[in-house]
């Protein structure tokens, strides 16, 4: 049994695909329907729907029903998970760097 994939891991994996990244970036400025998302992308509508599903599973986007239309929008949860991961990574890297610098100083005394 493998470890459960964290939200941030799912999010980073989802954005590893250039088409999904393009879709995600389209939603950055405003919520859109599938037709608008698919416009100008080099993949078929069913492929776009598949990509949207992956982004949804990674909690990077959410669906909002407006009448008969599904409107997709950026979901803060997925972005927060990635941000928390990077913040933690950054804090640990800075901590390690600080320790290293202190060691260096001791060695030169």
How would you characterize this protein structure?
By secondary structure, this protein is α+β, with helices and mostly antiparallel strands. The chain has a single domain, classed as Arc Repressor Mutant, subunit A (Orthogonal Bundle), CATH 1.10.10.10. 62% of the residues lie in helices and 13% in strands. It has helices at 7-14, 18-26, 34-38, 45-57, 76-108; strands at residues 32-33, 61-66, 69-74. The chain has a three-stranded antiparallel beta sheet. Strand 2 and strand 3 form a beta hairpin. Helix 1 packs across helix 5 (76-108). The protein is elongated and about 70 Å long.
Defining key terms:
single chain; 109 residues; alpha+beta; Arc Repressor Mutant, subunit A; 3-stranded antiparallel β-sheet; 5 helices; 3 strands; 62% helix; elongated
The largest beta-sheet arranges its strands as 1-3-2
- What is the CATH topology descriptor? Arc Repressor Mutant, subunit A
Secondary structure: helix percent: 55-70%
Write the CATH architecture name: Orthogonal Bundle
Strand content: 5-15%
Number of helices: 5
Name the CATH superfamily assignment.
Winged helix-like DNA-binding domain superfamily/Winged helix DNA-binding domain
The biggest sheet, with number of strands, parallel, antiparallel or mixed sense and barrel status, is: 3 strands, antiparallel
In the CATH scheme, the class would be: Mainly Alpha
The helix-strand sequence is HHEHHEEH
Unreliable spans are none
CA gyration radius, whole angstroms: 19 Å
The oligomeric state of the chains shown is: single chain
Number-wise, the strands total 3
Give the N-to-C terminal Cα separation. Answer: 51 Å
Which outline best applies?
Answer: elongated
Structural class: alpha+beta
């Amino acid at each position: 049994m493998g470890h459960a994939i964290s939200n941030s891991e799912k999010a980073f994996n989802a954005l590893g695909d250039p088409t999904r990244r393009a879709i995600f970036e389209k939603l950055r400025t405003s919520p859109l329907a599938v037709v608008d998302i698919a416009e100008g992308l080099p993949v078929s509508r069913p492929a776009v729907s598949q990509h949207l599903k992956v982004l949804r599973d990674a909690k990077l986007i959410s669906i909002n029903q407006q009448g008969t239309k599904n409107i997709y929008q950026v979901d803060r949860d997925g972005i927060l998970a990635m941000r928390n991961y990077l913040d933690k990574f950054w804090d640990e890297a800075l901590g390690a760097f600080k320790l290293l610098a202190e060691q260096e100083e001791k060695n030169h005394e």
